[in-house]
Amino acid sequence: MRRALRVPWVPLLVATVVAGLVLSFSTRAFSNTFNIYSILQIAAVDAVVGLSQMVVLAIGDMSLAVGGMAGLVTVVVGYLYQVQHWPVGLAVLVGLVAGPVFGLVNGAIIARTGLSAFIVTLATGTAFTGVAYGVTSSIPYADVPSVLVRLGQGRAAFFPYLLVVALVASVLIGSILHWMPFGRALLAMGGSREAAVLSGLSRQQSTIIAHTLSGLLAGVAAVMYIGVLGTATPATGTDWLIVSFAVPIIGGTALAGGEAHAFGCLVAGVVLATINDALIVLNISTYAVEMAEGLLIFVAVFAGRLGQEAAGTQRPEYGHRGGHVGPRSSGQGAVAREPLDGAQVT
Amino acid sequence: MRVKAPSVKTSESFSIRDGSEPRSMSSAQGILVGRVRAVAARQGSLIGLVLLIAFTWTVFGLAGSGFLGSFNLYTVGQLAARDAVLGMAQALLIVIARMNLAVGSIGAICASLLGYMLVSMSVPLPLALITVLVVGVLAALVMGWVELRTKLSSFIVTLAFLSAYGGGALWVTKADQYEISSSALNWLGSGTFLISSLCPLVIVAVVCAVALWFVYNRTSLGWKMLSVGANTRAARASGVDVSRVVLWSYAISGLLLAVAAIMESSYELQVNAGVGSDWLLPSFIAPVLGGVALVGGDVTLGGILLAAVFYDSLQSGLTILNVPSYWLQFAQGLVLLVAVILNQLRHARQRRSRRPERAGAAPGGEEVAVA
Prior knowledge:
The complex is a heterodimer of chains A (346) and B (371). With 346 residues, chain A is mostly helical. Chain A has helices spanning 2-6, 9-26, 33-58, 66-83, 88-113, 117-136, 146-153, 162-179, 181-191, 193-198, 203-229, 241-250, 262-281, 287-314, 333-336; strands at 155-156, 159-160. Chain A has a single domain (2-325), classed as ABC transporter involved in vitamin B12 uptake, BtuC (Orthogonal Bundle). Chain A is globular, with a radius of gyration of 20 Å. Chain B has a single domain, classed as ABC transporter involved in vitamin B12 uptake, BtuC. Chain B has helices at 28-63, 70-95, 103-120, 125-150, 154-173, 183-190, 200-218, 220-230, 232-237, 242-268, 280-290, 301-320, 328-354; strands spanning 178-179, 270-271. Chain B has a two-stranded antiparallel ribbon. The longest helix of chain B is centred in the N-terminal third of the chain and has 36 residues, at 28-63.
C-alpha cells in the first residue's frame, strides 16, 4: 500500500475518482453512460499523444513535433485512402510507417548536428504541419474508412474501443522502457548521460530510437483521431503541444529524463479529459480548460518533486526507476549543471 | 531536509553543449580575444544577411511583378518591424540561456487589454498604451519570479504560462473582437513616415534595437546579462546578482512583447485574444537567423533586424510568386531549420578557434567512438 502511494499517478487517480463522484452527485449530466464514454474516448487519444512525448522525455530530450508528425500521418492516410483508393489496411500501415520515418528525421538531425531537440523539432514540426497544409490546401479528406470510424466511435456501454488501443500502447511502451535492453538504455541515457556513455551506450543511437518511437506513437494517435473525428484533417495535432507535455508530466514522468510512467499517461489523459468535461458540464467556459492545463502542469511538477523528496528520505531509489546505471549527480555530469544554492542534500 | 530535485535543469535543456564543460572564464585576456573574434564573426554574419536579402530581392524582383514596388516594400517593413521586436523579446531570454514560449500569450493579453480599454472603456490612448506596457512587464515578471522561486527550467514554466495566460485571455474576453478606431494608432500602423514606402513601425523597431544595443553595450546590466548567459556560475562567483539579472531580462522581454502587441493592433485594428497565436516561430527565427547563440551569452541586434527583413521578404516574395499560402508554413519551418544548422556550424567553428585544445569535445563529437 505504501509503495502504491509512492507511484506518482495513484493519488491522481484517487483524486479524479473522488472528483467524479462529487460531480455525479452535483449534476446529472456527468454520470450518464455516454458522457463517461466521451471522457474515456478523449482520454485514450490524449494518453497516446502523451506517450509519444514521454519516450522522448525519457532520454531527457523533448519534441515539439508530435502534433506536426500526427498531422502529416493523418494526411498520408487520408490521401492514400480517398485519392489513391488504397485498401484501408494498407493506407493505415503506410501511415504507421510514415510516423516513425518522420521521427527518424528528427532524431537523425538532432544526433548528427548536436543541436538542441527543442529548436530542431520546433522547425521540423512546423515544416511537417506546413507540408500537411500544402498538400491538402487545408481541405480535410472527408471520405474516411468506416473501420476507423467504428474503432474511433465504437463503444461497449461506457467503454470506448479506443481505450484498448491506448492500454495496449502504454503496456507495450512501459514494457519496452523497463524490461527490454534498448528501452532500458533510453532510461539510462536520460538518468545520467555521462554514466550511460561511459558504460558503452551511444547517445546518438538513443536519440534516434526515442524520436523514432515518438513518431510511431504520434502516428497511432493520428489514426485514432481520424476515427474520432470522422475526417482526416491536416489541422490534426496543431493544438497538441500543451497536451503532449501536460499528460506525461502530470503522469509523473520527469522532464529531466531517466524516468517514465507509461500508465501514468493513461491516468493523466483521464484527468485532463475529466476536467475538460466537468468544465463543460458545469457550464464554465471551455477556454478555462486551457488555463487549467497550464496550472495542472505546475501542480504535477510540484507533486512529483514532493514525492521524490519523500522517497529520497526513505530510500534512495524506488522500484519504478529502472535502468539507472550510476548515481545521478556524481561524475562529470555535475560540472555542466547549475549549482542549486542550498538545494543539495545537507 | 531538502533534496536536489532532478528536474532542475535551468540552462541545460536548452543548451547545445550538454555534457561538455562550461565555457571557461579563467583569464581576462582569453575573454577579450574571444569577444574580438565574436565581433568579427558577427560582422561576417551581418554581411551574409545583407547579401542574402539582396539576393532574395533580386530574384523576387525579377521573377514576380511588384515585389520592389513601394507598396510591397511598405508591407515587408510593416511585418518585419513586428517580427524584429518579437525576435528581440525572445533574444533577451536566449541571451541568459533561457527561452520564452509564452510570447504569444502575453501578446494576447496585451492586445485584448488594449482593445478593451480603447473600445469598451474609452480610455485615452496614452493612458491605455502605458497600462498595456506595464501589464506586459508584469506578466513577464510573474514568469521570471516563478522560475526563480521554483528553480524549474524556463521551458516548462513558460509552457505552463503559455496555456494559463492564453486560456485566461480567451476566458476573460470570451474571445470578443474589439474594433479600434484611433487615428493615431492607425497612422502608426498604416501611415507613412517621410517616404511613401516607410511604415512608422519600422522606426519603432529600430528605436527598440538601438535602446537594447545601448543596454548590452553601454550598461553594466547588459554585461551582466551576457555573463549570466555565458556562464552562470562564473557570473555568480564574480558577484553578479543572478536573480536580479534574470528578472530584468524577463521584464524587458515583457515590455517588448507589449510593444509588439501594440504594433500588431495598430495595423490590424481588429483585435481579440487570438493575437499572438502565430508569434512563437518568428520570435525564434529572427534571433537564430540573425546569429544569436542559442547557448546564451551573445547577442546581435543588427542581425535580428536584418533577419526579420529577410524572413518577411521571403514570405511576401513567395506570395507574389503565387505560391499557395498553405505552403508558407512549410517555408517557415524550413528557414528555421536551415538557419539553426548554419548558426550551429558558425558557433562551433567559433568555439573551436577560441579553444583549439577542446576541438574534440565539440557537441556530438564525443561519443562517435563509443557507437
